[in-house]
Prior knowledge:
Helix content is about 40%, strand content about 5%. The protein is mainly alpha-helical and about 80 residues long. Strand 1 and strand 2 (about 75) form a beta hairpin.
Amino acid sequence: MAQDTDRLQQSKDQLSKDKSDLSDTQQQSRAAQAKAPTPQPVDLSNAIENPPRSQQVLPADLIAPKPQLNARGQTIGRLINITA
């Protein structure tokens, strides 16, 4: 009988501690939610730029160099196909 009384008291103590912990956790949660900034809506209407064709430019490393021509119109610096 004394064991049952001790266990009951321990259970009551544990329940009281758990309720206190729960209350603290709930208060912390409410405080965190109250401090959380409200997110601003994001405007995605101009997220992707689509400039006109005349303003579109390739990066320099993607542009093929223009061949140089000599006075006869022959390409300089490349092999020239002369088997025409």
